[in-house]
Design a protein that fits this description.
single chain, alpha/beta, seven-stranded mixed sheet, 9 helices, globular, S-adenosyl-L-methionine, methyltransferase activity
Length: 246
């Protein structure tokens, strides 16, 4: 594993701040579906007994593989052996990109060992669907109650959904929507799949001085989302697959 953690963009840093508080101290064997360029993967691998990340986009995979050699595969979850199960399965900012979210969720739950946990994140509130969602290849956003129902119907129990981001996320989304309108005007021919692949690479942080400085600046901003709990434009959800009974 790399000696230092890769930098995170502001939205991803706010997401990780929520996820790390919800993750069990020992998440066991962990699978991350759609790990992108590996910003979360490095952090999750440091906590896990074993880690496997999946990323179908070849360019994002190459970056993630460079950060965690041998722990990232350029495949989807459907390509794994049928009996391969994990104590913890994570899919952050993935489900909104998929036309069949119910089918995808069912396949992810099937990868969770009985008694294990599934973690998701997604953009929140259907009414906020906008230009930045179109640019990123999002089919939908999720109201918290709808996400809870979706996970419950997939067979998960003890479902928890938390909205995060606070006032800062509202400002960031407004800026993203403005930028997205300009970009969409120039890229009308891009398919949803192309937009989805590009979303994992767009405005991703590098290793330069600006991004290293931003990591320091972000830290006090993360406290703001805890001053405004369950406020923001995104959500993190978790649920447990019931343990098998004798």
């Amino acid at each position: 594993m790399t000696g230092s953690l890769p930098p995170l963009a502001i939205g991803a840093a706010m997401r990780w701040d929520m996820v790390r508080r919800l993750l069990p101290a020992s998440p066991g064997d962990l699978l991350e579906i759609g790990c992108g360029q590996g910003g979360f993967a490095v952090r999750l691998a440091a906590r896990s007994r074993s880690f496997l990340g999946l990323e179908p986009d070849r360019r994002s995979f190459a970056t993630a593989h460079g950060r965690l050699p041998g722990a990232i595969l350029n495949i989807t979850a459907d390509d794994l052996p049928a009996g391969r199960l994990f104590d913890t399965v994570c899919a952050f900012e993935v489900i909104e990109h998929l036309p069949d979210d119910k089918g995808a969720l069912a396949s992810w739950v099937a990868r969770v060992r009985p008694g294990g946990t599934l973690f998701l994140s997604a953009p929140a509130y259907a009414s906020r669907l906008g230009a930045s969602d179109a640019m990123a290849g999002h089919y939908r956003r999720y109201d918290p109650a709808d996400m809870a129902r979706l996970m419950t119907e997939a067979g998960l129990v003890d479902v928890t959904v938390r909205v995060y981001g606070g006032p800062l996320s509202w400002v960031l989304e407004m800026l993203r929507n403005g930028l997205a309108k300009l970009i969409l005007a120039r890229s009308q021919g891009a398919s949803f799949d192309e937009r989805t692949a590009g979303s994992g690479r767009f405005l991703q942080p590098g290793s330069g001085l600006f991004w290293r400085t931003l990591q320091v600046v972000i830290r006090p901003l993360l406290l703001v989302q805890h001053v405004f709990p369950n406020r923001g434009v995104a959500l993190v959800a978790m649920g447990r697959r019931p343990a098998e009974t004798a």
